[in-house]
Design goal:
The protein is of the alpha+beta class. The chain has six helices and 13 strands. Bound molecules: uracil (URA).
Length: about 230
């Protein structure tokens, strides 16, 4: 790929800024100063900008503690991606959380893994904490475990715990539009607060609301392993 593209993809600056810096002699490839933005580089090459090495990585995997008020879609402002300014431009949320929902959101530009993680066929568990307007009926535990009929689909069996009458932990393996809110609505309760606590084995430990971290290699490998069943 072109040298300026390599650097731009690694978020080292805009294409025009980078072209100028390359022309000024601020960039080396494998120890040699290169002043031509068109110079072809490979992912394995050692590239430095202003003396600092810029390593190439094709895929990025982030764990974000999403605050309320941010959307996972691309068509509106206050997008979750704005909370990770250093991310590659092609990094996208894995599935969606509603604007008002807080909690754990994965983001990546590895489309294949993202697709597998959100496929219900892989049974990747997501744990939610919810607070409701009214006491949650005990009958919801069995109803959720059996698989709740919603207007447009039958939810897969889900595990509900009710530690306090208006507080609940719900584990589901799919992520249809407004699913958690709709499941509680079916039981006569409105969800007033919703937070995703866990996505598979990943939780929010050490990541305060609004902050993010990169997943490490072992975590990415484990996520991939848990999706091995899906072939599509
Ligand atoms: N279910 C919902 O209703 N909302 C979310 O944001 C996530 C799951």
């Amino acid at each position: 790929m072109r040298l300026d593209r390599y650097l731009a993809e690694m978020n080292a600056g805009t294409r025009s800024e980078l072209k100028k810096r390359i022309r000024k002699g601020e960039v080396t490839v494998n120890g040699v100063c290169i002043r031509d933005a068109d110079h072809q580089v490979e992912e394995e090459d050692i590239v430095t900008l202003g003396g600092e090495e810029i390593a190439y990585h094709r895929y990025e995997y982030y764990l974000l503690h999403k605050p309320a008020g941010y959307v996972c879609t691309l068509d509106r402002s206050l997008q979750v991606t704005e909370l990770i300014p250093e991310a590659r431009k092609d990094v996208m949320p894995v599935g969606r959380l509603d604007k008002d929902t807080e909690g754990l959101l994965l983001l990546t530009n590895d489309g294949q893994l993202a697709h597998k993680l959100i496929s219900p066929r892989n049974h990747v568990e997501k744990l939610y904490y919810a607070e409701t307007d009214l006491p949650i009926p005990e009958a919801a535990i069995e109803a959720f475990a059996e698989g709740l009929e919603l207007e447009d689909f039958k939810a897969m069996p889900a595990k509900l715990q009710i530690p306090e009458e208006r507080k609940a932990f719900l584990t589901i393996c799919e992520g249809k539009y407004h699913q958690v809110r709709r499941m509680f609505a079916k039981m006569g309760c409105e969800v007033l607060y919703l937070r995703r606590e866990r996505f598979d084995f990943l939780d929010l430990s050490g990541v305060p609301c609004g902050e993010h971290r990169l997943l490490n290699e072992e975590e990415v490998a484990l996520l991939k392993k848990h999706c091995e069943k899906t072939t599509d």
